[in-house]
Write a structure and sequence with these properties.
Blueprint (H helix, E strand, L loop, with lengths): L2 H22 L3 E6 L4 E6 L6 H10 L5 H11 L3 E7 L5 E6 L3
Keywords: Membrane, Transmembrane, Transmembrane helix
């Protein structure tokens, strides 16, 4: 076994660990290719309870507006990420933007 095989096994282990961590955080594998190796993972959008947020906003005299806007525009959107190993053997993670 030479050094390149050891490093490729380490990179595959890092790749598998990243995918396992993302799955435990609620992501689902949409597409996976073990020859190239890459995987596209997605997480469904969360529903925002606007009635509850309005109530909290009224109780806090409007201070809750900023977290409410954040929940509405950022955290309630579907997320997609790409996890792959590049040509140099490094594992990377990148956001996929949804149009």
């Amino acid at each position: 076994m030479n050094i390149s095989q050891i490093t490729s096994e380490d990179n595959l282990q890092k790749y598998s660990n990243i995918i396992a961590n993302k799955i435990s955080n609620g992501f689902v594998i949409e597409e996976r290719n073990d020859k190239l190796p890459f995987a596209v993972l997605s997480k469904d959008a969360k529903a925002v309870d606007h009635g509850f947020n309005f109530l909290i906003c009224c109780v806090t005299l409007g201070l809750w507006t900023i977290p409410w806007i954040y929940q509405t525009y950022v955290s309630s959107k579907e997320q997609k990420i790409l996890v792959a190993i590049d040509e140099d053997g490094n594992t990377f993670e990148e956001n996929c933007y949804i149009g």
